[in-house]
Design goal:
The chain contains 6 helices and 2 strands, in the order αααββααα. The protein is mainly alpha-helical.
Length: 134
């Protein structure tokens, strides 16, 4: 699991999401994709994106290819790895280590029948996999 100083902030997670979607990119490409995805009143400047990516590089959240004039940034971990780390941290901090409490809270707060059906299907699949192993 990543060390606490490697946990992405909300702004860093926003840029990581862009890099997971578009792949390795220059600061300019990340800046453009970020601003294209938000209303104009939420746009951020190029230098802000650059600074956040530099901090993320120091935290080892992104890799930086410096072989070209325009540096290329890429996530150091996959979305799944980062999400897993964040969920583990949330479970420890907010639910005293209980994954079932997290799931119960998430399901209890959901009013989306399709999501609940998807969760039920996932649980059924896990049950059938365990029965096969036994």
């Amino acid at each position: 699991m990543a060390s606490p100083n490697r946990k992405p902030t909300e702004a860093e997670l926003s840029l990581l999401t862009i890099l997971w979607e578009i792949g390795p990119a220059t600061v300019r490409q990340v800046h453009q994709a970020h601003n294209d995805s938000l209303p104009e009143d939420q746009h951020i400047g190029y230098t802000t994106v650059l600074k956040i990516l530099q901090i993320m590089h120091e935290k080892k959240l992104v890799l930086r290819d410096e072989r070209q004039r325009a540096h290329i940034y890429a996530p150091s971990e996959s979305a799944v790895q980062t999400q897993s780390s964040l969920v583990k941290d949330l479970v420890q901090k907010a639910f005293n280590g209980s994954l079932s409490q997290l799931v119960m809270r998430a399901i209890g707060n959901s009013n989306n029948a399709e999501e609940i059906s998807d969760i039920r299907s996932m649980l059924d699949e896990l049950d059938s996999q365990q029965e096969t192993v036994q």
